[in-house]
Design a protein that fits this description.
The chain is of the alpha/beta class and 214 residues long. The protein contains eight helices and seven strands. It is globular and about 45 Å long.
Length: 214
Amino acid sequence: NTYAPVSYLRKIFMEAITNPDIAILSIATRPDCLDSDVISLLSEWNEIKPVWIELGLQTIHPKTSNFIRSGFSLSDFESSVFALHNSGIKVIAHVILGLPNETPDMMLDSVSYLGKLSIFGIKLQLLHILKGTDLFNYYQSHPFPVFTLPEYCDMIASCLELLPPQMVIHRITGDGPKDLLAAPLWSTSKKHVLNQIQKNLKEKNTWQSRLFNI
């Protein structure tokens, strides 16, 4: 990430980017950890090798964002995306599908919003409820609906329809640790999930020509 002094970031990431076996420097960080000095440093590295910055937006809805304690606003995210884009740095945004109290339309609103921004790629992540977390405690005391596999397949198809063809899809699901996962349990079989998503996309004739980086 970029939550450190510029002097320290320069040291550790220069070691990586100058390694001949490294093709791309991909850094996952937060919008509120990208001040002008950090972006200037990223731009400097981008002249050496491609730099990708991954930002976990998760949702555009303030109520949900506050619930998951993201700690930054949508305007913070936008400012970071614009600053990175103006510096020629590619951005990959993360969205969580299935967050508590969000309707399918709300989730699609988040994806549609990202489809209109100047970003390079997107990661669509299924919500996992893991034992021992605050979310697990909330789920036990306030049960909320989680995706079934057919519902999630339909959601992915709907998301892809909202995204421009040039946007790279870096992820369309995920698998939580089996010993910690409380729900949805069907997600433990990632190969089966991916096969079902692909089958659903073919049946719906949704972007069959797109190549998925999974």
